[in-house]
Amino acid sequence: MKLAELTQSTAFRLAAAFTCLFAAAVLIVFMVLYVQVGRELELRLGMRLNATKAEFLKVHQRDGFNELAGLVADDAAVAADNESIFLLKGPEGDYVAGNVRGAQSFDGVLWVQSSELTGLTGSVPPEQRYLAQWVPLPGDGLLLVGFSDAEIRRTRDVLLRALSWGLAGTVLLALGSGIFLGQRAQNQIDRVGHTLTAIRRGELTARVPVEGTGGDIDVVSRQINGTLDQLQSLFESVKQSSADIAHDLKTPIGRLRQRLEGLQISQATPAEAQQVIDTAIIEVDSIVDTFEALLNITQIEAGARKARFRIVDVAGVVASVHEAYEAVAEDAGMSLTLARPGMVAALVRGDNDLLSQMLVNLIENALRHCPPGTHIQIGVTATAQGPQLAITDDGPGIPEGERENVFRRLYRLEKSRTTPGSGLGLALVKAVAELHGASIALADNHPGLRVIIAFPRFAQG
Amino acid sequence: MRILLVEDDRQTAAYVAKGLTEEGHIVDTLSDGRDGLVQATSEPYDLVIVDRMLPGLDGLSLVKTMRGAGTKVPILMLTSLGGVDDRVDGLEAGADDYVVKPFAFSELQARVNALARRPPMRAEEAVLKAGNLEMDLISRVVKRGTETIELQPREFRLLEVLLRNKGRIVTRTMLLERVWDFHFDPKTSVVETHISRLRAKVDKPFDSELIQTVRGTGYTINEAR
Fold first, then answer.
1. Up-side HSE of residue A389: CA atoms within 13 Å toward CB?
2. pTM attached to this predicted model
């Protein structure tokens, strides 16, 4: 990744902002510390000056000028590092003792630059200052006492160094982690980008790698992958159904054309022609039916019908479909009965027409594929999860490996290729069930088939 | 009777107009929705046939506007294939019935006849009759001559629909809608099965058959000949 890209990444920008914030916080803390410590040290220096001054005055008062001069000389000798300055002047202003030879006179306590002092022996940094005061000795001259700010400067130096290192460390740490996090996030985003580019190029199987750390980007990645899965399956279903439709419609259209062409070239009698035309119309109607069913399934899958959902009693749907089909089953040599628990009201939010059609398709499927003597039962049971609609028969059933396939559009079991039916009935059943948020399961009824459609529990309001 | 046909597809319009004219109706054909609305509200028609998809003003809005203007003329909508919601939309807009394209002319004809001759605003009849068959809608007793016929609820409803359309053809699709409330086409013979059961009770035991099959279209009930 290029630096320019890095600095534009969200994570990096965030890190940079935090760096500034932390640095500012560190700076404020140090400033306060620096000022406070400096003040405190100056205060202490002033107190020390006062104490020393008082000490000297006491000696002068008690032991006289000469004793004081001795003490000053001793102190001046000890103060070799020029931490403190002393200058004792006689009544005529002449030098008596001290490590300073001369200094300007002033009133009160003041800061004196070391350059303003003469006679200082040893090395003294030019920036060194002394907090000093001229103390008049009653009748005997003047005494200059001063203490250097070396300690304050040293402390400040230490503080400044600590601040610099601390600040540098903070900035480095924040920037480093920013770059690291930014780069990591950017890499993950890049991977998402690469995946989407691959998809755009037609590699529909490409998926965003998921790190498994459960981070934000992982969550997004999983969602993207879920969407891609859904899109891929939709795309494949569309591809599959276009191919199926083309194949399934080509055959009857071809047949239709042959019939009409046959009629065109033959010298058929009007009665014969009438018969061919009748068959042709039936053929066209069946093609139209297939189209209608396909379009219906597509519309149902699109979900717009949900806007028309009302509260529907599935038990009511079962009862009315049973009423319509009981006689039909009887005529086919089978029986269609209601399971007893089918009488309880089973409310779902749904579309009455579609639910009727779904149930009709399931019953017609059983009627079409089961031999005479088959017993078909329909019923609704209320479960804690919601109403369950069950259609069971003791016919031939569906082999386990085929159970998922039968819901595909235009799919028909090999053995039923010859029986009538568009192969769309169960696809519509599945579409209607899914529209209602219901799950659909095919199971072995030992013998026969058991279809269970489990609706979600009806939530009031 | 005078029929206004608003349909933009020339071939369909010509086919429908020709068929209805042959039936003895006077048909005015328009292809634009806005022209259709003007014509329908200014001229007295016995029936208006409107396509769902029209240039100018779509069929739904046309019907809504007509109804909004208080026009009571029966309206038949033509809806396109696969329009799952078109039926409900059409009926909600104020159409009286609908036919899904492509349709057999006999289907359209049956619905046109059912709509056009619907007695306007007449009070519900209490007894429906055909020959010596009597259906009392209040006591729900069916008699042929003096003999009472026991009918299942759906058989009763089936016979009622046929009797209400006495002398007219009722198509299989119309029966599915009006008797069972099925707005789709079942692949099995629901209608045929129940008609045959009904016949076994209403016609078989007697010397004349009232329920007639119209081949490829539907059924009709007539006065015994």
1. 28
2. 0.65
